[in-house]
Structure formats: C-alpha cells, structure tokens
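Late entry, coenzyme A complex.
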Amino acid sequence: MGDPVITLRPAVHEDIPAFVALGRAVVPPTYGPIDAAYAQRMIDEWWTPDVFTRSMQTNAHLVAEVSGEMGAEVVALATIGRLAQSYREFPHVAGDREVMWKLYVHPDHHGRGIGSRLLAEVESRVEGDELWLEVVEGNEQAFGFYRSKGFVEVERVPDPAWPDDVWMRKVLR
Ligand SMILES: CC(C)(COP(=O)(O)OP(=O)(O)OC[C@H]1O[C@@H](n2cnc3c(N)ncnc32)[C@H](O)[C@@H]1OP(=O)(O)O)[C@@H](O)C(=O)NCCC(=O)NCCS
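Prediction complete; structure with ligand written out below:
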C-alpha cells in the first residue's frame, strides 16, 4: 500500500462532528500539560457544534482529509477570519487583523506536512499584507513551528485566570 492521499478542501456544515472529534483528540495532549482545566474548558466551550456553526458564518474553514479504504477522514482543520468579526473583545488592538484562529492536526498525523500545507493555503487566502495568530503561552511545539514558518512574536496579552495569549504576525508580501 502506498502513502495515504491527503486532500485539502473547504469545510462544509456536515464536517462539524469531525471537528468536535478532532478537538477531543488534539486539545488534551496539546494543552493538558500547560493547564488541564484550560484544556477542558476549550473542549467544553469552544470545540462545540454551536460554536462551529456560528464560526462558519464568519470565518473560512479548511480541512485536510485522508482517503483510505474506510473512506475519507478529516484529520486537520484551519480557520481564518477577521478580528473585527470575532465574538471576542480585543481591547489592545486598534484596527482590524486577518487571523488564523485555528490550525490543528490530529496527533496521529503530525510531522507529515499537513500543517504546512494548510498554512500555505491559509496564507494564499489573506487579502492584506499580514497574517496574525494567537498561541497559548507554553505551547512550545506550535511556537517552533510558527517561527520556522516566518512568524514573529509581537505582543503578549496577560490573562489573570488562564495562560497568556501570545500574538504572532507574518508579513506576507
Ligand atoms: C503545530 C502543528 C499544526 C504542525 O502541523 P504538522 O502537520 O505536524 O507540521 P508539518 O509536518 O507540516 O511540519 C512542518 C515543518 O515544521 C517543522 N516543525 C514542526 N515543529 C517544530 C518545532 N517545534 N520547532 C521547529 N520546527 C518545527 C518541521 O520540522 C517541519 O519542517 P520541514 O517542513 O522543513 O520538514 C501540529 O503539530 C499540531 O496540530 N499541533 C497541536 C495543535 C496546536 O498546537 N496547534 C496550534 C495552535 S496555535
């Protein structure tokens, strides 16, 4: 058997159960070692069908899918949108930003180039000159990945109750 075929495509509403399952697979190993309560909160409050339904109205969602004998399986998700359309408040930001809100690859498929392919696709969809993203303080694996892709740290947003957010930016052209 050869290497599995990995395809990128825009997400559809029917993918939402696969996003929820992806969150349950990738969020605990990523954030559990940083703050277990935060990882649980992410799954309970942010990786839910309702939140994805709302998010798909304002943000672009891209998936990577592996095709095999059992059919196609969603193994990664990237989302991109504008800060001004987020339901969250960002008092430290003046103006708008294009933001990659999510880039998550199933742990069984890390290191196979899927994150790189999704990021390149996201970058090709940026209308302005810059792409922004947030990384949770302590997520060193993601920091390393983003640095290797040309993102630089711009600011840290402290949170008294949860890990800080670190904003990174890449100038694209
Ligand atoms: C971070 C993540 C998206 C990367 O996706 P991936 O598919 O595993 O990454 P790739 O296989 O495309 O790796 C691509 C490159 O990044 C490099 N890289 C990966 N981790 C790295 C690290 N910690 N430091 C430096 N380089 C790193 C690899 O060496 C590889 O380089 P190459 O293309 O020159 O060989 C993925 O590991 C993931 O989903 N992590 C958990 C969830 C997460 O933290 N998401 C980010 C939230 S902000």
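The chain has one domain: 5-171. Will revisit in the morning.
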